[in-house]
Amino acid sequence: MADKTSEKRQNENKDNSVEQNISNSYIPKSKLTDLQMTNPGLDKEAQKEMEKTKANLEKFKKEIVKEFKYIEEIGIMPIQASLKIEEEFEVPIEECKKKLMHILVIIPEENFKEIQKVRLECIKKAKDIDEKWWVHVLTPVDIWNLGLDSKFDVLEALSMSYPVLDKGLLGALRIASIHKSMTLKKFEKYITSYIIAGSLVRGEAKPTSDIDIFIVIDDTDVKRMPRFELKEKLRSVIFQFITEATAIAGAKNPLNVQVYLLTEFWEAVKDAHPVMFTFIRDGIPLYDRGTFLPWKSLLRMGKIKPSPEAVDIFMSSGDKLEETINRRILDVAVMDIYWGVLTPSQGILMMFGLAPPTPKETFRLLREVFVEKEKLLEEKYVKILEEIVMYYKEYEGGKHTKMSGIELDKMAKNALDYTKRLKQLREQIEKRVQDKSIQQTHKDVFGMLESLTNKKGNAAVKEFETQFIKQGKFPQRLLENLKFITKTREDFEKIDKDKKKKITIKEIVAIEDARKMASEIINTLVEYVQRKEFVVLDRKRFLLKAKDKVAEILFLDNIFVIDSTKILEMKNGKLVDSNVDGLNKAMSESKNKPMKLNANQMEILTKHFGEFELSY
Q: Using CA atoms, how far apart are residues 173 and 238, in angstroms rounded to an integer?
């Protein structure tokens, strides 16, 4: 009980700190021309300095946008967040002492390769104007990654940047951040996740696009009122905050808020609801108490998969198609046909490991995956789905007001043929998926085994038994598991060749067991190889101690020096800047080579560090 109370207090202190930071950084306008309004009551000298800063910012904006026309956002970060910004982006201590003004520049993700060029030019122009200016150049992906890394206070600081140039992202983030602060301040104990999603996160937004927000409410400890009563009470107040947040932010993007109970959110994920898949896939947390990010990680790892029951539910809607068509009028009939073919189509794609797509994406994916790539489905069936989907969209738009009996009969017949074909396709996919699974499992295990033993096929197994099992380096069960994986693959190959034979539960279980065994074998072999490599590499690693510096030094094909701020590599008789990729490549290439050291190298190190000593 004491541990829980302590944890709760820590969370309360953390959240209150976040709320205070936001409230202190509210700025009433979002136009540069109104900058003076953020500091009323200044003396003439201070007002004059502010006007000078405003003019310099306008000059900086014009110069940098003229050179890099694709720049999307420029903002001034709040003074209250300087310490957090400097810690996150590792601003040098000597620069921090100047009491910097931090400027945020955002460029499109497609221009990421030019980020270093933009950063250098921005810094140059900023320093020409004012030595106390420090520029951070990011892409939208960099901003979203802060949320994925649970760095909500840093993301919040960026969100509250005062816009100098805004094409939609900064304004949208300000509205969302202010609304989040209001919501947490009022209902902190109930809110588990505050997520931003939609076109803004996907990079498809326009300056006037909606800001899609999902709020998850913890209803697991509700005792005095019905859960949905709690949801409605909180939702009504949360919706009231939308107008206030929009007014404070000074932006015009509509805030679209969806509120979910934690239990209904989990239920929807379990049932593979397409909206929840999209929400988890695209969403970025602005606040999360350990609810949303684990689901997102599981989805990325492929661990959130529709259950067989969910697949059955998606596909079963086509079973009663014939009966419903015979007794419905036009609008109901068209709707039933549409959902009767679309939903099982989505189920087929889900079964193949894809998230439920949009209606127009469904027939496109069916064609790409099952007609063109896997060659399991005939093109005529994709055309049937495409015609029904497009007809329904036209019907929604008011183009179709009636349908003849002949047209309805044709559409109904095509739909029924289509759903029957999907059932056959499901059986084909089950075989194909299991075949790929066991083949990949066998390939992964034997690829690792052959790399370790330098033998192929059965010779690798025999070598593994002689050199590793019998010598006690690995347990006997790993050898038995290898033989089980091989036998399972051979058995399934026989089933796969017989096109009429259906796969049974027993065979599916065997394949799953083989996959688990393969995972254990691979992990064991990888750990063994890593231990060997570490021992070899550790012999080449030393600690360099100089008068005023301590660094790690590795004697590889080239000498690498690693200190707290950078990586150096010895090239052409001197130490030059390197990076992690260069270090990893050198470690890989020299792991089986002896360590070398000569007098010339020692002379270069002495020239760079002065007198030094090496130790383990």
A: 17
Average confidence (pLDDT) over 26-38: 37
User: What gap in Å lies between CA 356 and CA 278, rounded to an integer?
Assistant: 8
Report pLDDT digits (tens) over 398-427. Answer: 777 677 778 888 888 999 999 998 888 887
**331: pLDDT confidence band, cut at 50, 70 and 90?**
low
What mean pLDDT comes out for the span 343-349? Answer: 88
Tell me, yes or no, whether 33 and 125 share the same domain: yes
- Side chain identity at 358, as an amino acid letter? T
Domain boundary among 109, 137, 166: 166
- Note whether 152 and 23 are same-domain residues: yes
Domain CATH number, residue 262: 3.30.460.10
Check whether 29 has a pLDDT greater than 50: no
494 φ, ψ to 5°? -65, -40
For residue 325, is pLDDT > 60?
A: no
**Domain-located, residue 20:** yes
DSSP string, 121-189: HHHHHHHHH-TTEEEEEE-HHHHHHHHHTT-HHHHHHHHTPEEEEESSHHHHHHHHHHHHHHHHHHHTT
Give a yes or no: residue 9 inside a domain.
no
Residues 341 and 483 in one domain: no
Confidence (pTM): 0.48
Full residue range of the structural domain in which residue 72 is found = 15-166
Q: Which residues pair with 612 in a beta bridge?
A: 546
3-state SS, 455-521, equals CCHHHHHHHHHHHHHCCCCCCHHHHHHHHHHHHHHHHHHHHHHCCCCCCCHHHHHHHHHHHHHHHHH
Classify residue 32 by its DSSP letter: G
